[in-house]
Amino acid sequence: MPAQQKKLIFSAAGVLSLACALGTAAAVGTQLWVRGSVLCSTGALLVNASGPELRKFIGDIQYGLFSGQRVRQCGLGGRPFQFSFFPDLLRIIPASIHVSVILFCTVLIVFALVGAGFFMLNAFGSPYETLHGPAGLYLWSFISCSCGCLVMILFSSEVKIHHLSEKIANFKEGAFTFKTHSEQFANSFWTILVCSLVHFLNALLIRFAGFEFPFSKSKDSGTITGAVDLMY
């Protein structure tokens, strides 16, 4: 492939990596990871609410990795409540999983920035070490894509398996019990998915530029090496 086309491909990959790093950083700081509604089951059972009356017992909840908001509604109007995971909810959430999600998000941002830098170096500079060349580009893309996948898996397990929304909704509630009525992942979660796909796309762009995958050897080079060994 001509050098000019390679520069164009690496420049595009570098811009995509930089955009992913900025997008992930923005996603981490928002409260748009999960949106849903919670039902005040205690209040609904007390008055045997059904149909339109049930709406008076359904509140809203949304949260991110650090903070969120819930609207408590038990037939007496909505009462908003702001909360933060650290240190408010640290006792009731699966802290190890939650901290791991934040850690992998940080690693994703760092390696996306590193990958963007090396893509630009390969586009406009002269690679002089292995990690500046194709092997390094594959490595940064693989690490970033893997971290994005781990973030989605861990956060999904925290929300769905450990019932994170219900734990938040029942935080500091004595007389009333809340259950999840509806729940869906919001924009920031899907941003991580898009970033993971972009890093996978970058690996394909490297291959499209004509670079072989790391540690792969052609049959011709093996044959030539074997012939030289026989000569000596």
TrEMBL record:
Keywords: Membrane, Transmembrane, Transmembrane helix
Listed transmembrane segments: 97-125, 137-155, 189-209
Cellular component per GO, a single term: membrane
Gene Ontology biological process: equilibrioception; sensory perception of sound
Membrane-protein topology: Multi-pass membrane protein
Superkingdom as given in the UniProt entry: Eukaryota
Family of this protein: Belongs to the clarin family.
Database matches in PANTHER family: CLARIN, CLARIN-1
Protein name, entry field: CLRN1 protein
